[in-house]
Amino acid sequence: MGGPELEQLIGLFSRLPGLGPRSARRIVLKLLRDKEGGLARLADAMQAAAAAVRSCTVCGNLDSSDPCAICAEPLREARICVVEGVADLWALERAHVYRGRYHILGSTLSALAGRGPEDLAIAPLLARLEAAPVEEIILALPATVEGAATAHYLTERLKRFGIPLSRLAQGVPIGGALEVLDEGTLATALRARGAAN
Ligand code: ZN
User: Fold this and answer.
1) Cut 0.70: pTM above it
2) Residues with CB under 5 A from ligand 1 (ion)
3) What is the dihedral of CA 83, 172, 97, 103, to 10 degrees?
4) What domains sit in the chain, N to C, each tagged with a CATH number?
C-alpha cells in the first residue's frame, strides 16, 4: 500500500515514543493531505533541526547554540541541578520553579546494565565545579535503584568540594490519589512528611 517511500515513513513514525503503526499511518495521511504542504514543511524543519541542534559542551542540553541558551544566561543562580537527561531539564524549565543551571549526566549507574561512572558525564561536572564554584548542587535523579545508586556515588565524589548537596523530595504527585500510588512512593511520601500547618 502506497509504495516503499510511504512504508518507510510510516515505519519511522511508528518507532517514535507513544506512537504505533496505527497512529503513524494517521499522521502520515494527515501530512500528505495537508494543503500547505505539511510533509515537505516537516521535512525542512527536521533537516534544519538536524543540522543546527547540538549538545551544549557545558551542560549537555540540546540547543542550536553552544553554550546553550541556559548556560549563556548571565543571571542564572550559581546552583547546578544534576539530571539524567535532556527531557528532565526541559520538564524543570517548564515548571518555572528553578533559576539555576543544569548538568546532564546522560544516564544513570547500573551494575546490571554494565554502566559505570565513565559512561556518565561525571568528569565534566567535576571540571565545572573546579573552574567555577557554586552555592548548591541539587541531585534531581530518577526515583529508581539506578537513580539512588548514582546519587550515592555523586555524593561521595562531590564531598571534597564542600558544596551543600540536596535532593528532590519524593512523594505524592499533585492531583494524585493515594490509592493509585505504588507502595514505594507512598512509603517515601510518608517518611518525608512535613508539618501540617
Ligand atoms: Zn548548556
Assistant:
1) yes
2) 56, 58-59, 61, 67-68, 71
3) 0
4) 4-52 (1.10.8.420), 75-167 (3.40.1360.10)
